[in-house]
User: What shape does this take?
Amino acid sequence: MAARKTLLAAAAVGALALGVTTPAAAQGQEKQQQTRIEIREALPSEIPQDAALSAQAAGCRVGEQVSDRFSSCAEKYLIVSIVEIPSGKVIGTALFDAQNKTRLNYKSATWEQEAVLKMVRSFGVAKFGTMASAEVDCKASQGNGCTSAPGIVGPKVFWGLWGTSTNTYTFKVNSPGDGIVGHAPQTKVTVSHPSSPEKAHFTLGNIAPVRCDSAKNIGNIGRGCVHPLVKPVYRLSKGDKAVKGVAEHIEDAQQHKLKKPWGAVNKGYPLHRLPNGDLSRANRDTACTTAVKNSYKPKSCDEYPFAGSYEGAALNPDYSTAPVPLSENRTEGGFKYRGRFIMQNRVLDYDEFWVEITK
Amino acid sequence: MPDLIGAATARLPVPEGQYAILSPGAEDAQDSIPDTGEVAATGLFAAGTDGALVITGTDQGDIGIRVELWSGAPAADDTAWEDVVEDSYTATGTAHVQNVEGRPAGLPDLAWSGPGTYRIRVSVRGRDLGADDDGTDAGRPAPVEQHLIQVWPAPAAPPHALKLSDELGESWRREAAEG
Assistant: This one.
């Protein structure tokens, strides 16, 4: 601590030596701002060459948003400049790698949101005493919005003397109520420096939208949240003896029997989940008629796309049936397979999903 | 003579031809449900700790279900039922009937005397009719497939099939035997 205090003092002295007026020094003098702090997104030419590698290690990509059903990362590089007024002379700069991340939980209404700010390089007065705080802004949400704890984290100091300097800001964000609510929480950072009475504000890259629900038809597991724009993938293995026949039928249907590759990953025709009801029953009865079922006995009638999808036989003439062992049919649709997939990905009514058959 | 503590009936949608008994509030409750392979011995029902699985013939539709809570083992009536199987269920919390989508059946807590080990007897009829149904059952006042679940506190014992006669169960057992 003593070393840090000394450095802060050195920063203030350094600022004075550079002719910069600190808030304290300005007291009793003319109320004229003599420096200002600015923040902007870095140009591609200003981003370090190894940025892509370090981003990948964190599950991120520079300048983009990378998401799966439960995590999202938006990464940007920022330039903070401390500018002398009125000369316009830049007396300090710092380059920040700024990651905005989420970690959702399929059975919790609370998720973790984290901003990671890494001061990669710094020059001049920015080397000493540059600080940043962060807060999660839930305004861009439906309904009751979300709440974040704590409200603000920081300010935390970055130390440029020892190369890079990293601070992490962690929030618990909660989605109240029991409805289906979309959230688009933004993380805002405020950067300051002892030499400038003003602060600079920047909104980090947007993470993928969050959807929280308390749906009763996905396994009765209470409230939880996902990134709904990321389509989950339901995987079945042909090597899994418990569902082998079903997996082979789906693969045959996707690759050969159907006119369109319904459900095949990224082929343009995702399935949409249809919860149990008259429609799913109609799908089943259209595909697996009494005649078809009798012709398959003693095996059972398997249909694809699933009766539990809006692409089922009553709604889509492009479907396939095949005889499969009864136990496999029940296993695939059951609690430990498709039921678990729907639950753990919170696949709600009309949510899109893919079906992938593996070896 | 054992006492009937309580009884209730419901119409339960059974997407994917099965339902479970589990403790809905428990962490990872679905993990406690027996695998479908564990049902192979009887083709109907298997139970364990905080989880039981019952296979239905109806696979996109409703069944009729009655639950009876008993103080001891009730007399078995296998004339009215096609398949009757008993197994032991250990409840660490509550025990509720729930379908694969998680919708509760609105039936009472089967672990009626609190946590402990219970004997569950599942009696069914109409599974083959349910399996063969092609939509004509929709909207009927009573589904063609009927299940009776009788529960009483009892020490743990191996599964026991009192009667096995329907085609669906036979088909399941044969598949398992053929590997």
Summary: The radius of gyration of chain B is 15 Å. Chain B touches chain A at residues 13, 15-18, 20, 24, 29-30, 33, 35-37, 39-40, 53, 55, 59-61, 98-104, 131-132, 134-135, 138, 168, 171-172, 174-176 (CB under 8 Å).
